[in-house]
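Sample A.
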Amino acid sequence: MWKITSVGIYLLLFALLIGCSPSLIEVPVEEPASLGYITSVHKELTSLPSAKEPIVAAVYKFRDQTGQYKTSASGVTWSTAVTQGATSMLLKALEDSKWFTVIEREGLSNLLNERKIIRSSRENFMNGEGEKLPPLPPLLYAGVILEGGIISYETNTVTGGIGARYFGIGTSTQYRKDEVSIYLRAVSTQTGKVLKTVYTTKSILSMSVDVNVYRYVRFKRLLEVETGYSVNEPPQMCVLEAIEKAVLSLVVEGIMDKLWTLQNPQDIKLPVIVDYLKEKDQVEGRVDYDISPNLAPRNFGIGLNGGLQQYVGDYRNANREPVIEPFFRFNFSPQFSIALDGIYGKVSNEDKFSTRLNLVELKGLWYLLPSQRISPFFMGGGGMIKYFPQDPDGKDLPVDKSKDEPAPNFVMSAVYGAGVEYFLNRAWSFHLTVANHYAFTDQLDGKIHGKLKDSFFDAKLGFTYYLVH
């Protein structure tokens, strides 16, 4: 009976893990056709103010200039990494903006052949009144030619993941970030001058989640269950969003440079234009791939952490107590730094003791992604603890209940942990840390018992201000 129950427990735990995602076990059999994908930029593109006069524009070819092919487990395939239909996407974006009169140039040879057929037919046939049919009107010519293409497709710019396994039950997640970049330029057909060039980029995100159980439930009886799913942004949809952003940028930049004119000059204050200009100012002050936490301009920083800490020792029912941590940070290389911390808090349980703690710690930090805006890191070091063990009524606790002697309140400690830091700009960063502090004493709780020393762990959220030289 116990063996059957244990199997049921494992299956129940596994069901709880995947219960919040019922779609994991749903396999779609059929999906009807639907309208095309709408990007997050499309609404902004279609809300542009009206032009005084639409711009007649021609697009001969908006090419894939990356030269990259898809990779697979068996090697490189002959399938390209990005779509070859970017010209059609650009024509649709230009049409949706209502700022351009788009003329056909990609299939120009087909258009000319068809006009030859029509012209020949008109020469050989007459209308109902016996008169020759009028000649075809001339083709509309462009005032602006739009050139450019997909200039880069970078894979694995950021990768990472996290996982945990306990008692044969585990889960893990992995993610990856790719990037596609678009250049678009407007060229005057009268002079050949490049009027404006814009550049946009779009991230392509991929994520996978796995959940599994691997456990012997009895002798020669192995329970193994696994499930998972992955989500991948389609690269062609990301290319479409980048193209629409480029068209939006080209229109607004042309308005600001007086290359083309608004029908109503007051529309310059509309949110779509104001928001774009704000975004441009933010981008111009941002350096995405020069955000190393330990570069020379950031050789010294000050900061503050706050969070909760919890005691681990001889007593159960430990409380979570607030903790505050001011610190100084010294950076020596793009990957390594040291921190001098002061920690103020306490550890306690429900009814046995309450110990105030003052710590000074010296820690080393090692960054896994030192050149990225967001980077995980590991840390380790040691320090000194000054502690004041008391009972819940505020009375000092002795080292041993048989002796009426207060515990000495200075002791060495060790610390290790991990965290992640996000760099808002070159001066400010935010970080989340989890650490375990091991005291070389068993007296934090006023009770000496067994061979293990007392310890406590904490989780803190804080910020750092880097002094820029």
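Sample B.
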Amino acid sequence: MRLAMCLFKFFPYGGLERDFLKIANVCLSRGHSVTVYVMEWDGDIPNGLDVQVLPVRGWRNHSQVESYVNKLVGELDRSSFDLVVGFNKMPRLDVYYAADVCYVDRMQGWGKALSRVGARFKTYSLYEKAVFSRNSKTVSLMISADQMKLFKGYYKTPDERMILLSPGISKDRLANKNSVNVRAKFREKNKIADDDMLLLMVGSGFKTKGVDRAIKAVALLKKDIKKRVKLFVVGGDKPEKFKKMARKLGISDQVYFWGGRDDVPAFLLGADLLLQPSRHENTGTAIIEGIVSGLPVLVSDVCGYAVHVKRAKAGKIIPSPFCVEQFSTLIEEMLTSSERQMWKDNALQYAKTEDLYSMPEQAVNSLEKIRNEAGKTDVG
């Protein structure tokens, strides 16, 4: 197949971008050609990918996106692809990989009433409708059952146009026989004492992930616990305002920002508790990464993959509405609980018995099936 893959921007450490790359690599391994259209590409270009950067205009994000889509449509009109696959919502897609939450749902509520009359909302809601409306022909590859229900509720999307995939966690996140040594070396290298307690957050988009919530929760811990706690944040975003918050709360020497990294498995094995107090989250890949590495997890109930925490009995879930005092209490309870070994054992058993890894292969199987079925109805 000749495939066009479309996403607004690529950088190496975003969850959406990593999923795109996994799917693209499986396509290449099966002999398909992949042309990628982006506004920006940050990082090395893997062998085999034909990356086309479309220059865009506009000062605001939605204006740039509109410019990108207009240029993309022109490129698609001049080319011949078997399928057009999008990783952001936009018109002209045959297939959409649903890495993002339902935008219209997220914009509900009195606090966002003014936002719903602006140009930004008009653009993004129109593009979402182009994918999910009953009149669309786009097939969506879903990675969250909860989000699938939301899209169906708003757009009445037919069942046959939604395919639910398993998670696609890289197997280098799995705990192994060397995990104890990796943990010991990581903690020694980063000056983490045996009685220190390391909290970990992994993911780009610090506000969405709730980094500010984690900093406030650490500051609220009881003094004897707080002095032993460190918070490591791994992910690509601007940390300045969060560092400033940590300074104001008197814990700046306990909060560390590491940027995007390729050695995340060592952080997972070296930590004592994974935090994901997200404000909204389609899935939350780091949640599964924590589970398969045997790291107890504490996540907000809005995360699509919180369901795996419940099924695995591998940690706790922060209920809505979010309360930072309750979050802080849960952190303290989990760091000192006698159930820690049980959560770890449950997580590792779940990693062995559940399919948490095959999303890229399932996605490409779906692309091939969609194209084959479309080919049967092609005229000429």
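B remarks: The CA atoms of residues 286 and 302 lie 14 Å apart. The chain has two domains: 2-166+358-377, 171-353.
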